[in-house]
Amino acid sequence: MSLLCVGVKKAKLDGPQEKFNTYVTLKVQNVKSTTIAVRGNLPCWEQDFMFEINRLDLGLTVEMWNKGLIWDTMVGTVWIPLSSIRQSNEEGPGEWLTLDSQVIMADSEICGTKDPTLHLVLLDTRFELPL
Question: From residue 88, how far is each of 3, 14, 67, 102, 110 by CA, in Å?
Fold first, then answer.
Protein backbone atom coordinates (compact mmCIF):
# COMPACT_ATOMS: atom_id res chain seq x y z
CA MET A 1 0.00 0.00 0.00
CA SER A 2 1.44 3.38 -1.03
CA LEU A 3 0.33 6.88 -0.10
CA LEU A 4 -0.06 9.19 -3.12
CA CYS A 5 0.11 12.90 -2.30
CA VAL A 6 -1.21 15.34 -4.90
CA GLY A 7 -0.95 19.10 -4.49
CA VAL A 8 -3.22 21.01 -6.84
CA LYS A 9 -1.46 24.38 -6.89
CA LYS A 10 -2.62 26.71 -9.67
CA ALA A 11 -3.35 27.05 -13.38
CA LYS A 12 -2.77 29.33 -16.36
CA LEU A 13 -5.87 29.37 -18.55
CA ASP A 14 -6.07 30.75 -22.08
CA GLY A 15 -8.90 33.25 -22.33
CA PRO A 16 -10.49 36.26 -20.57
CA GLN A 17 -10.58 35.96 -16.78
CA GLU A 18 -14.37 36.49 -16.57
CA LYS A 19 -14.84 33.31 -18.65
CA PHE A 20 -13.48 30.97 -15.95
CA ASN A 21 -14.76 29.62 -12.63
CA THR A 22 -12.80 26.39 -12.49
CA TYR A 23 -12.24 23.41 -10.22
CA VAL A 24 -10.07 20.30 -10.53
CA THR A 25 -11.10 16.67 -10.01
CA LEU A 26 -8.61 13.91 -9.26
CA LYS A 27 -9.58 10.28 -9.94
CA VAL A 28 -7.58 7.19 -9.07
CA GLN A 29 -8.71 3.62 -8.25
CA ASN A 30 -12.42 4.60 -8.24
CA VAL A 31 -11.80 7.41 -5.72
CA LYS A 32 -12.57 10.99 -6.73
CA SER A 33 -11.61 14.24 -5.00
CA THR A 34 -12.45 17.79 -6.03
CA THR A 35 -11.03 21.25 -5.31
CA ILE A 36 -13.14 24.30 -4.64
CA ALA A 37 -14.10 26.46 -7.65
CA VAL A 38 -11.94 29.56 -8.21
CA ARG A 39 -12.70 32.45 -10.58
CA GLY A 40 -10.30 33.91 -13.15
CA ASN A 41 -7.78 32.74 -15.73
CA LEU A 42 -4.99 32.35 -13.10
CA PRO A 43 -6.80 30.30 -10.45
CA CYS A 44 -4.89 29.30 -7.31
CA TRP A 45 -6.16 26.37 -5.22
CA GLU A 46 -3.18 25.21 -3.10
CA GLN A 47 -5.17 22.13 -2.02
CA ASP A 48 -3.54 18.83 -1.04
CA PHE A 49 -5.05 15.38 -1.44
CA MET A 50 -3.95 11.91 -0.34
CA PHE A 51 -4.90 8.56 -1.82
CA GLU A 52 -4.07 5.03 -0.68
CA ILE A 53 -2.77 3.17 -3.74
CA ASN A 54 -2.42 -0.59 -4.07
CA ARG A 55 -2.03 -0.86 -7.88
CA LEU A 56 0.88 1.01 -9.44
CA ASP A 57 -0.14 -0.09 -12.97
CA LEU A 58 -2.99 2.46 -12.97
CA GLY A 59 -2.95 6.21 -13.51
CA LEU A 60 -4.14 9.45 -11.95
CA THR A 61 -6.76 11.26 -14.03
CA VAL A 62 -6.78 15.04 -13.57
CA GLU A 63 -9.72 16.98 -15.01
CA MET A 64 -10.34 20.72 -14.94
CA TRP A 65 -13.94 21.87 -15.17
CA ASN A 66 -15.55 25.27 -15.69
CA LYS A 67 -18.58 25.71 -13.43
CA GLY A 68 -21.71 26.70 -15.35
CA LEU A 69 -25.20 27.80 -14.37
CA ILE A 70 -26.83 24.60 -15.64
CA TRP A 71 -23.93 22.24 -16.35
CA ASP A 72 -20.17 22.26 -16.05
CA THR A 73 -17.89 22.03 -19.09
CA MET A 74 -14.50 20.33 -19.21
CA VAL A 75 -11.55 22.69 -19.74
CA GLY A 76 -9.05 19.86 -20.16
CA THR A 77 -7.64 16.64 -18.75
CA VAL A 78 -4.31 14.91 -18.19
CA TRP A 79 -3.52 11.30 -17.26
CA ILE A 80 -0.42 10.58 -15.18
CA PRO A 81 0.83 6.97 -14.98
CA LEU A 82 1.40 6.15 -11.29
CA SER A 83 4.67 4.43 -12.22
CA SER A 84 6.08 7.83 -13.32
CA ILE A 85 5.44 9.60 -9.99
CA ARG A 86 8.47 10.31 -7.81
CA GLN A 87 8.96 9.01 -4.27
CA SER A 88 9.74 11.64 -1.67
CA ASN A 89 8.78 12.84 1.80
CA GLU A 90 9.35 16.44 0.69
CA GLU A 91 6.92 18.64 -1.15
CA GLY A 92 8.33 19.76 -4.46
CA PRO A 93 7.89 22.86 -6.59
CA GLY A 94 5.43 20.96 -8.77
CA GLU A 95 5.32 20.49 -12.51
CA TRP A 96 3.41 22.48 -15.13
CA LEU A 97 1.31 20.07 -17.19
CA THR A 98 -0.53 20.87 -20.42
CA LEU A 99 -4.19 19.89 -20.31
CA ASP A 100 -5.43 17.85 -23.27
CA SER A 101 -8.93 17.89 -24.72
CA GLN A 102 -9.39 14.12 -25.23
CA VAL A 103 -8.80 10.93 -23.28
CA ILE A 104 -7.43 7.73 -24.83
CA MET A 105 -9.29 4.59 -23.75
CA ALA A 106 -8.24 0.94 -23.76
CA ASP A 107 -10.52 -1.80 -22.36
CA SER A 108 -12.79 0.91 -20.84
CA GLU A 109 -9.84 2.30 -18.83
CA ILE A 110 -8.19 5.67 -19.48
CA CYS A 111 -4.61 5.08 -20.62
CA GLY A 112 -3.60 8.55 -21.80
CA THR A 113 -4.71 11.91 -23.20
CA LYS A 114 -4.27 13.72 -26.53
CA ASP A 115 -4.95 16.99 -28.36
CA PRO A 116 -3.21 19.61 -26.17
CA THR A 117 -5.05 22.79 -25.21
CA LEU A 118 -3.43 26.12 -24.30
CA HIS A 119 -4.30 25.55 -20.60
CA LEU A 120 -1.69 24.58 -17.97
CA VAL A 121 -2.05 23.22 -14.43
CA LEU A 122 0.66 23.11 -11.73
CA LEU A 123 0.62 19.84 -9.77
CA ASP A 124 2.98 18.41 -7.16
CA THR A 125 2.64 14.61 -7.20
CA ARG A 126 4.66 12.23 -5.03
CA PHE A 127 4.50 8.97 -3.18
CA GLU A 128 5.35 9.19 0.52
CA LEU A 129 8.32 7.01 1.38
CA PRO A 130 7.60 4.32 3.97
CA LEU A 131 8.96 5.06 7.47
Answer: 11, 32, 34, 30, 26
